[in-house]
Design goal:
The chain is of the alpha/beta class. About 30% of the residues lie in helices and about 15% in strands. It contains eight helices and ten strands. The strands form two sheets. Strands 1-9-7-8-5-2-3-4 form an eight-stranded mixed sheet. Strands 6-10 form a two-stranded antiparallel sheet. Bound molecules: uridine-5'-diphosphate (UDP) and manganese (II) ion. The site of manganese (II) ion has 3 residues, from loops.
Length: about 300
């Protein structure tokens, strides 16, 4: 699907007083969903105005990341160091690192107004369970200190690093990430869970986009709902002896089908260099590490 959708005018009117969004600046890509949410591509926002607006609101932005088992030594330092360079620079930021080995968390020099908290989690045996257990843990954290100190939170995979500015233009009540491997696929081919017995199931014809669980975000209230939904759905599947095709990501996709995201990030925000060059990818902001499952997963 190409072109600026009709509600670009609506976006213009809504954001005109702030001047953050300019969806017409990228006519070759889809910059608005059918339900009126902006799809943020490089060039469709003014980062300076977005920063100024966020500063005026005196926001605290949370960034959660899990580093369990070998993922800690392999990825955490670079993830945090690159976040210091690029994530919400100029805003108040609180990192939440979840790990079973708090003492092994690298000491990263933090800029002013930036804090890091380490939370202990138990290590699940299967990597699928480590990945899925994040939903329940995040749900509890959002109901506790994280939820009290942050206004908005991003939840990310650790096996990636920031490569360019990731600022408040990405903030919204709920934020979903277009999956870099799937954004140009026909809808019927998208890898949603199709087993109707699973709580994550989407029927043929359902599903707007395939979203990447390596990055999602939103307000504390919305994320409480999202993580609670996904944790409950996963537990329901488990009780029935089921596991969704792409684990927590399948349930996240079901949630965003039922509750449309307020903002969608283009694949530039979470890009995979293995895909190679693409004309529409101007400025990747997060780059995923090559998959090295043989040495990471048992
Ligand atoms: N993770 C972890 N230890 C594990 C498995 C997963 O810390 O043994 C965390 C880590 O943050 C990782 C995320 O869960 O980035 C999702 O797992 P992974 O990145 O392996 O899944 P994929 O991106 O390949 O779907
Ligand atoms: Mn990952």
């Amino acid at each position: 699907p190409m072109g600026v959708c009709p509600s670009a005018t609506m976006l213009l009117l809504r954001d005109n007083f702030t001047g953050v969004l300019r969806p017409w600046a990228r006519p070759e890509v889809l910059t608005c969903t059918s339900w009126g949410a902006p799809i943020i591509w490089d060039g469709t926002f003014n980062p300076v105005i977005a920063q100024k607006k966020a500063r005026q609101q005196n926001l605290t932005i949370g960034l959660t990341v899990f580093a369990v088992g070998r993922y800690l030594e392999k990825y955490l330092a670079r993830f945090l160091e690159s976040a210091e360079q690029h994530f919400m620079v100029g805003q108040r930021v609180v990192y939440y690192v979840f790990t079973e080995r708090p003492a092994a968390v690298p000491r990263v020099a933090l800029g002013p107004g930036r804090q890091l908290r380490v939370e202990h989690v138990v290590r699940e045996r299967r990597w699928q369970d480590v990945s899925m257990a994040r939903m329940r843990t995040l749900h509890e954290a959002l109901g506790g200190r994280l939820g009290r100190e942050a206004h908005f939170v991003f939840c990310m995979d650790v096996d990636q690093h920031f490569s360019s500015a990731f600022g408040p233009e990405a903030l919204a009540e709920s934020v979903a990430q277009l999956h870099a491997w799937h954004y140009h696929w026909p809808r019927w081919l998208l890898p949603f869970e199709r087993d109707s017995r699973s709580a994550a199931a989407l029927a043929q014809g359902e599903g707007d986009f395939y979203y990447h669980a390596a990055l999602f975000g939103g307000s504390v209230a919305t994320l409480r709902g999202l993580t609670g939904h996904c944790a409950r759905a996963q537990e329901q599947d488990r009780a029935r002896g089921l596991e969704a095709r792409w684990h927590d990501e399948s349930h996240l996709n079901k949630f965003f089908w039922l509750h449309k995201p307020a903002k969608v990030l283009s694949p530039e925000f979470c890009w995979s260099p293995e895909i190679g060059r693409r004309a529409e990818i101007h400025c990747p902001r997060l780059l995923s590490a090559p998959k090295e499952y043989a040495i990471l997963r048992d």
